[in-house]
């Protein structure tokens, strides 16, 4: 269904028809439509949804619409929405909402849930603890398959996934995990202990969410258990939440690599003032750094006074250097992010980049030499520019691979050593190389 | 276990100890170790693994090690590995291996599987068809829950996931889907038809893999059905494969945005020559484009002959313009990739970027003005540079948001309109703006 259609049905008060259309739609699609609808109408559509769908839809819509919706819903309606949310979504909601809304939300959840929420809110924002949900299937070692299936039937409705079940002892320490597939495929009298997997990969509540997301990628899990310092199971993280984190972390990397301070809100959600603020800091740093390049140029005033054409090649040399540097740094930053490149590979990387630089530098020098010979018929200039290109390319690629590795070594995020910073640094060196070569060869 | 430990155990021929250690490890971790081990020793470790673990480990290791391993394994050993692989992994393997290895692989699979493989190989490389596996649970509408559970027990071992089951009619047309949770939680005499979900999201065999991966992100699926043009179910795609595609597509975007031709192989797997080749094309295009900027500078030879200091500010103006442009283009490219920004938002985006530009431009102009007043005590120069900065920032941000949207409109990948291209274009305009303002104000 399209936005226009919803608007029309709402206007004509054809609520029954709207209700039937919405029944056919997935919650994610309904929420996408609600995100486009004017805030005042959201509540009207929302009230038509079934209880279950309302809960699911609510967990997908964007935060300013959620805020308005919570204000518009009656306490009873909000309670029924909160009943449908899993604990991780509830906690995300509370973390996101302004403090004047939070009491209304807390009032809508049961006392027992409120206790769990308060525990979950204590975990640092980007930790496994803040990603996890507390609704999972727990089994005991001495249960038979039949007992286990009964337990799943008893508590499965409230559990976020029944795909993986967790075997705990009386202290809630994690003993083993077992997939629903292995339970179903085993004889009903088999004891869980005999078929559970005891070689368990788990994460700690304080682990970083990015590392957690990477584990899903590496091990192809559907869910991952989260334990406390005493190895007691406190929650699980499901793969859909891991995908969300992956997406967030990648957007953050893209932003950092473009010299923007990372921002969790979407493009349109972010105010103009905040956009400006996120972009100004790095622009200022880079702008003032390029004053160094300017200073170097001033030193060679006599050179370009004698051969003004030298100035015309500054953009090309700086541009090529910058591009070469960002090619290398992007590959290295990406390799570090996916764990393909490790710190110990530094010499392997360096040796590879040197060889690439030589090939790239020579090709660029030749192509440019031909252009200069055609355009200016000046062999000396062609040689100066050719040598400068080879030097700049090599230097740029060295900086481009070394700086991200250095950042990693210093436990900084390699993503800050991306195109903008590399380009500014390469500018300084390439201008130096250029004028050194030019003055030497041309005898200026 | 660490690499050194494996090497030691291998050298001392302590195979039993090694076997026990490997038993405790996940396949993904074993394969990571094998990727670091010398190629000749891989087969020794591989032969110690249990049949199931060998299959899983095989599906994770990198392609040049797989190639060597296939050559080293006996036909019988290879057959037992192939038995453990799911159809999608088998197809990926065949697509990846050089043609002299493929016959040995095909000999190791059953005749029936060979037929399926040949069908799957016909799908385009980046399509849903090439991602899917054909091992899934199919049910019939009139089955009871008890029948369904029996069916799952019968064919579940060979199925990639039992999390979602697919209800087909006699023509294998998809009628509904049902989660294992809903089956387990229902009464055993319930008919599947009554509890299955009929509002199904499916993809077509020819759909693009990137769109498929996005659907997992949007709908939080564990598996997605793939149908042919007659809506017959031909396979399923599981979330782990979707995560792989997401990762690949993102690496591709990073590469494109750094002016590198995308490459599916890893950094170390790619040869020096291929690295150079992937980087040269864009460098040449950008290098020759920057000759335009050079040409413009030549036009203003008299201006910088009169005020040589003007040359010193070229790097700063070009750098700031480039950085502003790439900030905007990165945000827009990313927004388009995650579907947050759509083509119809063009005026919303433009209006936002204009306001951001004004704030950013003024702040940069003021800071730089102060620097110039302190360093050179030259108000006229401060005004020229300040006005140029405001003009350049605005222009750069306009280009940075418009060009990716234009690319999208022309059905090109917006990622090509990233930092390197934007920077080169901004260079041209910013130099023009700079010398126009300078000559006008300074009366050159």
Essential attributes:
homodimer, 444 residues, mainly alpha, CBS-domain, Tetracycline Repressor, domain 2, 23 helices, 6 strands
Explain what you see:
- The structure is a homodimer of 444-residue chains.
- Chain A is mostly helical.
- Chain A folds into 3 domains: 3-122, Alpha Horseshoe (MgtE N-terminal fold); 138-238, Roll (CBS-domain), CATH 3.10.580; 272-442, SLC41 divalent cation transporters, integral membrane domain (Tetracycline Repressor, domain 2, Orthogonal Bundle), CATH 1.10.357.
- Chain A has helices at residues 3-11, 15-23, 27-34, 39-48, 51-60, 63-72, 75-84, 87-96, 102-107, 111-121, 128-131, 145-155, 180-185, 192-195, 209-219, 239-257, 272-299, 301-306, 309-312, 314-337, 346-376, 379-409, 419-442, and strands at 138-139, 164-168, 174-179, 203-204, 223-227, 233-238.
- Chain A has a 3-stranded mixed sheet with strand order 1-2-3. Chain A has a 3-stranded mixed sheet with strand order 4-5-6.
- In chain A, strand 5 (223-227) and strand 6 form a beta hairpin.
- The relative contact order of chain A is 0.06.
- Chains A and B meet through helix 12, helix 13, helix 15, helix 16 and helix 17 of A and helix 12, helix 13, helix 15, helix 16 and helix 17 of B.
């Amino acid at each position: 269904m399209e936005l226009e259609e919803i608007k029309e049905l709402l206007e004509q008060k054809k609520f029954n028809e709207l209700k039937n259309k919405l029944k056919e739609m997935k919650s994610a699609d309904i929420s996408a439509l609600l995100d486009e609808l004017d805030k005042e109408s959201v509540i009207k559509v929302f009230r038509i949804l079934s209880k279950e769908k309302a809960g699911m839809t609510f967990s997908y819509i964007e935060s300013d619409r959620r805020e308005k919706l919570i204000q518009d819903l009656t306490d009873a309606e909000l309670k029924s929405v909160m009943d449908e949310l899993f604990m991780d979504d509830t906690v995300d909601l509370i973390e996101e909402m302004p403090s004047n809304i939070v009491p209304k939300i807390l009032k809508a959840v049961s006392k027992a849930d409120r206790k769990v929420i308060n525990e979950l809110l204590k975990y640092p924002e980007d930790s496994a603890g803040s990603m996890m949900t507390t609704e999972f299937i727990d089994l005991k070692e001495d249960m038979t398959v039949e007992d286990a299936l009964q337990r799943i039937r008893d508590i499965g409705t409230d559990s976020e996934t029944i795909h993986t079940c967790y075997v705990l002892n009386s202290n809630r320490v994690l003993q083993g995990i077992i997939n629903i597939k292995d339970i179903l495929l085993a004889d009903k009298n088999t004891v869980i202990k005999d078929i559970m997997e005891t070689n368990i990969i788990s994460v700690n509540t304080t682990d970083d969410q990015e590392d957690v997301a990477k584990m899903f990628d590496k091990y192809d899990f559907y869910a991952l258990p989260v334990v406390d310092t005493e190895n007691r199971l406190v929650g699980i993280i499901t793969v859909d939440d891991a995908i969300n984190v992956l997406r967030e972390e990648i957007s953050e990397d893209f932003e950092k690599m473009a010299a923007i301070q990372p921002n969790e809100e979407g493009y349109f959600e972010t105010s103009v003032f905040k956009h400006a603020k996120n972009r100004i800091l790095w622009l200022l740093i880079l702008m003032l750094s390029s004053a160094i390049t300017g200073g170097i140029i001033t030193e060679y005033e006599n050179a370009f006074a004698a051969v003004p054409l030298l100035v015309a090649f500054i953009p090309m040399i700086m541009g090529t250097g910058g591009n070469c540097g960002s090619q290398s740094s992007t590959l290295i930053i990406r390799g570090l992010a996916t764990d393909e490149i490790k710190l110990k590979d530094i010499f392997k990387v360096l040796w590879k980049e040197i060889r690439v630089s030589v090939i790239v530098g020579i090709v660029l020098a030749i192509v440019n030499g031909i252009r200069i010979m055609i355009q200016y018929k000046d062999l000396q200039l062609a040689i100066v520019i050719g040598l400068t290109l080879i030097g700049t390319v090599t230097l740029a690629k060295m900086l481009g691979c070394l700086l991200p590795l250095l950042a990693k070594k210093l436990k900084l995020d390699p993503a800050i050593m991306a195109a903008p910073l590399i380009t500014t640094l390469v500018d300084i060196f390439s201008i130096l190389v250029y004028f050194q070569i030019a003055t030497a060869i041309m005898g200026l």
